[in-house]
Amino acid sequence: MPAGRLKTIASRIAQAIPVVLGVVVVTFVLTRALPGDPAVYFAGAAADEASIAEIRTALGLDKSLPEQFIIYVGDLLQGDLGQSLSTGQPVAVELARRLPASLELTLLALLLSCAVALPLGILAATRPGSWIDHGCRVLVTAGVSLPTFFTGLALIYIFYYLLGWSPAPLGRLDFLYLEPPRVTGFFLIDAAVIGDWETWRGAARQMVLPAVTLALFTLAPLARMTRAAMLQALSADFIRTAKAAGLTRTTLLYRYALHNALLPVVTTLGMVFSFTLGANVLVEKVFAWPGIGSYAVDALIASDYAAVQGFVLTMALLFVLLNLTIDIAYTLIDPRIGFES
Amino acid sequence: MTKTRLSAAPSRRSFLQMSGAALAGAGMLPFLKVLPAQAQAAETVVVVTGQTINSLDIHRTGTNRASYQVAVNCYDRLVSFGTKETADGGLSYDYQTIVPELAESWEIAEDSIVFTLKAHAVFWDGSPVTAEDVRWSFERAVSVGGFPTVQMKAGLLEKPEQFEALDEKTFKIHLLRPSKLTLPDLAVPVPMIINSKVAKANATDDDPWATEYLHQTPAGSGAYKVERWDPGQQLVYERNDAWVGGLLPGARRVIVREVPNASNRRALLERGDVQISFNMPNKDAQELSGQDGVSVFSTPIENCIHCVGLNYSFEPFQDPDVRKAVAYAIPYADIFQTAAYGRGAPMWGGSGEIETLDWPQPFPYDTDLDKARAHLDKSAFAGGFEVPLSISLGLVDWMEPTALLIQESLGKIGITATVEKIPGANWRTAALVEKRLPMHLENFGGWLNYPCYYFFWAYKEGHLFNSSNYANPEVEALVDETLHMQPDDPDYAPKITRLMQIAIEDLPRIPLWQPALNVGTNAAEGYEYWFHRQLDARGLSRA
């Protein structure tokens, strides 16, 4: 990569710093503004005034907001996200353990959904009005209109309960297996690294239903966007010119039209990825998947400040990273796009 | 190295695949028995629950209810409760019988109880359980603050000076005054005996009670050790073969898996992939009972009542006729069927005569809109009034249908109730701490199963579960007099009867029903109901 581009990437990262700082401040203020008193909640059902006060002191909630904020930022700088009360674990450790679970599932689902959506979109665009186009529309409509928890439960009912083809919806691994030694946190990769194919199969089988559930949901925007972008590209002047110049249909379609259509598709992919990561809470709940989505919701219900802040911060960082990746992907697809502003 | 499974059970999977869809019925249940190599798996019980275990130390700040089971299964107490059979053929703890656990025997004097520990009791690390360990553990429970300290106080166990190790195996509790609650309070999960040598070795200046260490690493002498804990996912217990606290458990290993979705827990149980589904929704319990292969135990939770709280701080509810009008307007039977699916015990339609000291017992109110209207007409609010009816979003499963039915019925006598939903994290503050909800649904059940204990928490002025701001000098005096009195004292029965009469007449809380704890089993035996409403794994075995 040329030095100029590295420099622009560095400046892009620098631009993200104020965003992250803003997130730190906003999450801190927001979590405190939320209704609910963690000291009362965590004191337990039978606690009296004195023990609630003790817990308030233990949590540092008796200090003023600016003081709490300074302590929070000081801990953050040391990489300490605090300790979650509802799970009793350090937030950083929990997120590090749970993020790979969500990422593995989300990435697999996206891969699956791209593998279906892109060809489907292209086919629909090249044969508008045909049965493939109509089929695509039906699938897309089904994908967006069926809520993920419903799809998930329906799939479990059919493939686990009735047919018995799928393993029990018990999270990432059935209780017969132990987690593979941690390298990346992605079970499929970690099990492959040590060559434990039995565990690999176990993890893969466990992932099929939730990944299909999520893929059905993410398929719609991708297929629609591919179709629209392809239609637009195919009707563009340069395609007509190329057609007139006698280029083959394949070259026309894949070399010129698809290449130009990829840009909006990648944009959509980025957006879908980020919202799926946040929105797969329901899928995680249905499949007992130990990801960050279910973690964040539980933390929110319990007014678990540290966990909520840690989650929002992680998501913000991920989002910044994702935008950066997409920007770089743009320049690879279309060299005309630069970072110069 | 590929042998990373918990048990040598690769062929369990292939067996499942082999049998395919034919497994759906109950006929496949004992399939592990036909495979001799699977003997170990046959001694494994898998439990699913919707709750998260967040700590392995019940004394720690923030430890949730689901975690109490670790205190039960991994630690011993000096004494425990006996076991009795319930009406439906299940098992329940028996609060009237105290049995030895770590203590071999005890002698009760006017000002002390002296316990002799079992001679062969050892902690998991092989060191003997000494009176000093007991003393340290009790001192910890009364010193760490929060819930453990409050619970110890219920048995008048308040100060470290009360506990004394006389010698290696003799432990003495100095009583502040005699109380019937002291001995039972030693059998609740809180006064567990911790290996103090291990704990002290891992204590720091900031954390003298080793809460950070014991939070992750139990150190006890109990029936089970924790083999593995993946927070948010599972807890695996492994049997301690050197346990002396009771009969050795039948299951070598108990796996507690967290499955948030109730319908999945049900599917897992029905398919026989798990042996126990703990704390099932009422609906599933109703639909699964009678189904082949699955047994459902619905035990009314002792001492626990779902009720409507009428707050005395709000004008309409200061009027006794308004309270009675509400009590007669509630559609009890509909609520019981809709919100509880008929699980539990009705708390309405009683005779009005207090014949036993059983608590809870049905109040003499039933749905009667004519009576309700008559009472309302006598009150200062004959034209009706508007009132918010508050429920917790954390408990919508029973509170929402209940509230809607009450709302509809109250509308018929001219009381307009608007259902107000309060987030779960806020509920306790609003309902119990600030006590600012005029009309609300409420639930309380005490661990120590005496009516006076219930009245202490729910009817005394300012006490936590008295969410109705109820204050009555006679109740105050009666509760104080009876709380520590022996039940065989001749004064006890008349005073408790009087308390119940006042509760029925004054109605700060209108009982709806006594909820049930639903547990489904499939090819497991020995489930026993406990007041702490958590899994006691010690009696379980594969059927």
Write the layout of secondary structure elements.
The complex is a heterodimer of chains A (341) and B (543).
Chain A: H1 3-33, H2 38-43, H3 49-59, H4 65-77, H5 91-126, H6 131-145, H7 148-162, H8 187-193, H9 197-234, H10 237-244, H11 249-279, H12 281-286, H13 292-301, H14 305-333
Helix pairs in contact in A: 1-14, 5-6, 5-9, 5-11, 6-9, 7-9, 8-9, 9-11, 11-14, 13-14
Chain B: H1 10-19, H2 39-42, E1 44-49, H3 68-74, E2 79-85, E3 91-100, E4 103-108, E5 112-117, H4 131-143, H5 146-154, E6 163-167, E7 170-174, H6 182-185, H7 196-201, H8 211-216, E8 224-230, E9 234-239, E10 253-258, H9 262-271, E11 276-278, H10 282-288, E12 294-300, E13 304-310, H11 315-318, H12 320-329, H13 332-340, E14 345-346, H14 369-378, E15 386-392, H15 396-412, E16 416-422, H16 424-433, E17 439-445, H17 451-458, H18 473-482, H19 492-506, E18 509-514, E19 516-522, E20 524-525, E21 528-529, E22 541-542
Parallel strand pairs in B: 1-10, 1-11, 3-21, 15-16, 15-17
Antiparallel strand pairs in B: 2-3, 4-5, 5-7, 6-7, 8-9, 9-10, 11-19, 12-19, 13-17, 13-18, 14-18, 20-22
Describe the structure.
The complex is a heterodimer of chains A (341) and B (543). With 341 residues, chain A is mainly alpha-helical. Helices cover 75% and strands 0% of the residues of chain A. Chain A contains 14 helices and no strands. In chain A, helix 1 (3-33) packs antiparallel against helix 14, helix 5 (91-126) packs across helix 9 and helix 13 (292-301) packs antiparallel against helix 14. The longest helix of chain A is centred in the middle third of the chain and has 38 residues, at 197-234. Chain A starts with a helix and ends in an 8-residue tail after the last helix. Chain B is of the alpha+beta class and 543 residues long. Chain B contains 19 helices and 22 strands. In chain B, the strands form 5 sheets. Chain B has a 7-stranded mixed beta sheet, with helices on both faces. A 6-stranded mixed beta sheet of chain B has the order 14-18-13-17-15-16. In chain B, strands 4-5-7-6 form a 4-stranded antiparallel beta sheet, with helices on one face. In chain B, helix 13 runs antiparallel to helix 15 and helix 18 (473-482) runs antiparallel to helix 19 (492-506). The longest helix of chain B is centred in the last third of the chain and has 17 residues, at 396-412. Chain B is globular and about 75 Å long. Chain B starts with 9 loop residues before the first helix and ends with a strand. Mean pLDDT of chain B is 89; it is low at 1-39. Chains A and B meet through helix 2, helix 3, helix 7, helix 9 and helix 13 of A and helix 1, helix 5, strand 10, helix 9 and helix 16 of B.
